[in-house]
Amino acid sequence: MFRYRALILLIPLLASLPSAAEAERYRFIPAEPQQVERIAPVTLAEPTYKVVPPALQARLISILGQQEPSSEKKRKDIKTTAVFVGLSDTIERVTGLDLSGLSRLGQEACTISFIAGNPSQLVVAANSDYGLSVGLQRLDEYVGNSNGNRTISISGLLDYPSFPIRGVIEGFYGRPWSEEERIEMLRFMGRARLNYYFWAPKAIPSHRDEWRRPHSNEELASFRMLLAEAKSQKIHLVYGIAPGKSICYSSREDYNALLAKVKSVIHLGFLDIALLMDDISRELKNKKDKSSFGTLGKAQVALIQRLHADLKKLHPGVKIFFCPTKYFGAEPEKSDYLLTIGNGLPADIEIFWTGTRVYSPSIAQADAIRAGNVLRRKPLYWDNFPVNDYISSRLHLGPLFNRQNGLERCSTGLVMNGMNQAEASKIALYTAASYLWNSKAYIAGTAWQRSLKEIGGTEALPFLEEIAIGLSGSAHWPEGYSHDLAARFDRLRNDYNAGNAEQAVFEADVWLTRLLRTSARLRQSIDNRQLMAELSPLLERLDDTAELCRQMLPLYLSPKKIDREYQARIKEASNNISNRQKLTCPDIKTMENFIKETIVRFVRP
């Protein structure tokens, strides 16, 4: 039975939700609410706004309608809905409702309660302004319109995220995202209710290779823009620095350089700092460090303890995230380094963990508990999905798979490492947002369909889905997705060897023609031009290989009748494709293998 029978609705239009005209842009997108009591649509009477924060009035009116002025005499004959919206302590005070249970669900929790009658009552309450924004967007989902009258289809709702930390990290190698791409990512995250963005692009010198160098005026200006946008979207912007390749842990000068660098961004407004020691040597190299600390773990603990104390003096609200040098493993309890880190770091520091592998196909509660026992806290997962920096020509366009329901009980959250292609990353990130908000209701296929529609547009949905299946290659993508083309080529080979390939050639040609048509329809129908720009190199390769495969099919019917000029053209086209960058996308790889095999079989050197 719904626990908070008397609760609320509402939500502020964050300061950044400026008007009713922009309501669609700020709809809640990732997942179903944690608890909801649905009812047949009930017509809402004229709203009477009893308690509503001024900043939320415009947004609330866009959902429920304007309160109509009328005389007291006329008012007696009009049915009304009393509307109460606000923070839980305020709502408790003015309504007498018991909202004590709401406070245990975190700052982002909200509740909505609708009680029918004359007057009816609608309440929206939350623990924070952020929670009110969630509540208002949830209300918008369940308020409809019937014959010009507003209706409501729930009697109660309770919502809160499964994970407190739901993030994106720009932590990959290769081309970093542009300032514009970061701004757009923050806006996307605001809509998807992702709440932590980690700035940690490995290719930017001031982050890693030249970490001692102060940030330029241009970089500082960029940070100010990102901080302003993150604030408007209610997102924590985390500053990452990675000194591990060259830092001398026993050097006063190096420590002072690190402290000064971090102080410079705290003065800008950063309160979340990530110290990243991943992908460096697991042994101390400096003789002074060896004599002072003995092991890498002890050196890093000493550094972080000192930095933690100094930053807390500067601002007590500073939060530190740490990525250890050993950040994955199936048996973390066997690592002296991890035991040292877990025992030595202050309890309020979040420690990253990628799972049993660098790129973990699955993450289970048992693995998280095992890591947590060693780290002496719940791990924060640096989830290397959908990152593609190790093979940048591959796009991971599928949904998040195999993150266990209930993982929130033994982990503080997941931070998804994006692809070099920022816009294409959002397909996977949308599905991750759904899981992170409500893990028990997460269905990968359903979230993926919503994501493709949200990112690519309704008209492009069927074509984007088919192309995504053909182009996606990922450790997270289950086996069995894109086997149609390979099966057709296998049949063609077998039937040719048996002396009867006509039907197999026909079916392969139909499939390839459909693939080319789908590619063309996607280009015509997609709304998202930036996504199209990121997909285009792969689509061009897909088109070229599919067309060449079609041209080769007649060889399986009567190879002896093919003239040498035709063979020469086939060979030249094949060489042109072979000289391009190698790709690992399933359908393209399947077609390129077919081309090579056909050349060897039929076309003389």
Report on the architecture of this protein.
The protein is an alpha/beta fold and 605 residues long. It folds into 3 domains: 140 residues, 2-Layer Sandwich (Chitobiase, domain 2), CATH 3.30.379.10; 277 residues, Alpha-Beta Barrel (TIM Barrel), CATH 3.20.20; 119 residues, Up-down Bundle (Methane Monooxygenase Hydroxylase, Chain G, domain 1), CATH 1.20.58. The protein has 20 helices and 15 strands. It has an 8-stranded parallel barrel. Strands 1, 2, 3, 4, 5, 6 and 7 form a 7-stranded mixed beta sheet that branches. The N terminus is likely disordered.
Keyphrases for this structure?
605 residues, alpha/beta, Chitobiase, domain 2, TIM Barrel, 3 domains, 15% strand
Strand order of the largest sheet: 8-9-10-11-12-13-14-15
How many whole angstroms does the radius of gyration measure? 28 Å
Write down the overall mean pLDDT: 88
Largest sheet, strands/sense/barrel: 8 strands, parallel, barrel
The name CATH uses for the topology of the largest domain is TIM Barrel
Report the end-to-end length measured between terminal Cα atoms: 75 Å
What do we call the CATH homologous superfamily of the largest domain?
Glycosidases
Any idea how many domains?
3
Strand residue percentage: 5-15%
The parts where pLDDT drops under 50 for at least 5 residues are: 1-27
Proportion of residues in helical segments: 40-55%
Q: Judging by the overall fold, what is the CATH architecture of the largest domain?
A: Alpha-Beta Barrel
**CA-based shape:** globular
Number of strands: 15
Helical region count?
20
SSE class: alpha/beta
CATH class of the largest domain: Alpha Beta
